[in-house]
Amino acid sequence: MEHTNQPTAGTSHRPRTHRCCSQHNKLLYSHPTFDPPSALTDHQTWGGGKPVGGAHDVFGAQGRSLSPEDQWGEGGKSTMVMCLEFGEGAVAGDMCEDLCVRGRVQYQRCLYYQNGKKVLEAFWGGRRVVLKSKLENFSSYEPLGLLDYQDAADELTPLDVVFYATLEVRNSLGLAEEDEDEEGGGANSSLASQWGQRLKSRGRSYSRAELASLWSLLQQEEYTFLRVLQDLSTHVAQVLGSCGHFYAVEYLSAGRTWDQNIFSLEEAAGPPGPRGRWSVRDQVHRVALSFLDMVRHFDHDFTHRLHLCDVKPENFAIRKDLTVVAIDVDMAFFEPKMRDILDQNCSSDDDCSFFDCASRCNAERHRCSRRRRNTNLQVICEKIFRPWFSPTILGAKAGLPLQVELQQAVQECSETGSDVGEGEEDEGREETSGSVHQRLLSILTRLLQEGGASGEEGGAREKRGHAHTALNF
Predict the structure, then answer these.
(1) What is the DSSP letter of 376?
(2) Is the separation of the CB atoms in 156 and 205 below 8 Å?
(3) Mind listing the pLDDT tens digit for each residue in 198-211?
(4) pTM
(5) pLDDT(60) > 50
(6) Do the beta carbons of residue 176 and residue 190 sit within 8 Å?
(7) Under a CB-based contact definition with an 8 Å cutoff, are residues 99 and 466 in contact?
(8) Sequence-distant contacts of 390-396: CB under 8 A, at least 24 apart
């Protein structure tokens, strides 16, 4: 499927205007195609967190029309429409019954709403989750063309679904079949094909609602990215379930630019263990070690290097074991797609910067190099570690030998790769980056040992309470 919103280089920032959902919601019952009494007859509940017993419950004791805010807060409109579509058999998902029938999903607040993208906080069976959709309405997604034919859904085998889904995943992630089959780069030889095998193992055919819902999810690059890496990485948010075009991910403690520790360490660390509660600096060092583990993982553990082009505290979170997790991956790209993005016309190096991913302009060809000149590690050192380990934050401890060594290493790290020429061999840059990475790892480990910590770094996957298996999405 063609995607027309291909990002281009020369972009240094993007607006991040967070709007409250209620600014864009109107009363659902004013929708010209919605008839509350008849629409709810066959499906006696919706996403309001409680069953609907009939028109009296929907309209109130005096027959007054209740707004979505009355029933499910500011997220009411899109979730109620989706539940009506579920009742009509148009959408499916392993979260639909809990959302639309059992009332086990309770809305909390709107986190983000702009250009149709909606992010909601909710509780699902007592667990805090984040509901996401790139577009507000299910009808806004391009339908699977095969479903236009009367018997197409009945004739599609699980193998057919694997074929079409794998093509869409490859297109979304920018991975051609020949790219995935290349040797080297990591043990996971084919991300799209590996995920497709899970669809194949289902063993039974898919309904039209399941196929339509799957197709709407695959058109959301972030969902595809998270779902493909679900069982391959502890450093990405876990997808817990879906209903129609909405999907639920784990709720995590996200970073905050204004917090000197970036993360709410008290909330993440949990109650003190047998060794007592870790100090704030020990927790910071553990989180820093997890950042280093994430960088190594994204650089070496997949067929292609994974580039993070929007590095800032708000785009990362930590689990209770202090594992760093990338929670906003709209600007994360594997190497083939990264090269396509950087391959642009240019007149100077400024035209070859795509947010935090930059290359150089070839003055003779007036073309940006397709190879990124900076690295994930360099950007994290510059935008995360330098503020963290600055003398201002460290205070009296800034003069201690290991802290001075750490500051020097972070400074060196933030400058590594900035002067790499287009013709310089990748091996030389890899060696330099690897050396800096190892130096930071050594210093942080010694700081933990000096503080009396056990030396174990964050990285264990938190046990999940809900397996996202009903549709094997």
Answers:
(1) H
(2) yes
(3) 665 656 778 889 99
(4) 0.78
(5) no
(6) no
(7) no
(8) 393/260
